[in-house]
Amino acid sequence: MGSISNDKLLEEIKTTEDQIADRIADNMDTFGVSATVGRLLGIIYMNRKAMTLDELAEQTGMSKTRMSQVMRQMIALNIAEKVFVKGSRKEHYTVENDYTQTFISLFTTNWKEVVGRNTTLERRLRDRVQKLEQIDSEDISRK
């Protein structure tokens, strides 16, 4: 078996990490989460340490402002969090090391949101039906 140069090995590792990040993005898209969120999740996951918005912007080619928006979305989805890094004044973000746990968190958060929306809609529709029934019974009693 021939030897492989360090540069070639690093290139292969980077290619593999990119493929994993792309797969994570595809998986997120399957669950209705934007590919950008999935891509960032994959990048941070593969980086194996907390990252700054600057680092994320550099790796994705997107603006720091966009990275901030996406990270807020990821925090709201319970799939990322801000962490303190000693000696740094910048905000750092990390994700769960257990990829399966990330999907459990995502599913749970989305499920709670759907249940909340459905409960609110149910209350509104129930109130509407009661008002309609009241109007109908008033019309019947006038006849």
Protein described:
This protein is mainly alpha-helical and 143 residues long. It has one domain: Arc Repressor Mutant, subunit A (Orthogonal Bundle). 72% of the residues lie in helices and 6% in strands. It is built from five helices and three strands, in the order ααβααββα. The chain has a three-stranded antiparallel beta sheet. Strand 2 and strand 3 form a beta hairpin. Helix 1 packs across helix 2. The protein is elongated and about 95 Å long.
Question: Would you spell out the secondary-structure blueprint of this structure?
Answer:
Blueprint: H1 6-30, H2 35-47, E1 51-52, H3 53-60, H4 64-76, E2 81-83, E3 92-94, H5 99-142
Antiparallel strand pairs: 1-3, 2-3
Number of domains: 1
Highest CATH level, the class = Mainly Alpha
Secondary-structure element order, N to C: HHEHHEEH
If you compute it from the alpha carbons, what radius of gyration comes out, rounded to the nearest whole angstrom? 24 Å
How confident overall, as mean pLDDT?
86
Classify the fold: give the CATH topology. Answer: Arc Repressor Mutant, subunit A
CATH arch. level architecture: Orthogonal Bundle
Number of E-state strands: 3
Main sheet: strands, sense, barrel: 3 strands, antiparallel
Give the CA-CA distance, first to last residue.
96 Å
Strand order across the largest sheet: 1-3-2
Overall structural class, as computed from helix and strand content, comes to mainly alpha
Helix content: over 70%
Shape: elongated
| Poorly predicted ranges | none
Strand content: 5-15%
Q: State the fourth-level CATH superfamily.
A: Winged helix-like DNA-binding domain superfamily/Winged helix DNA-binding domain
The number of helical segments is 5
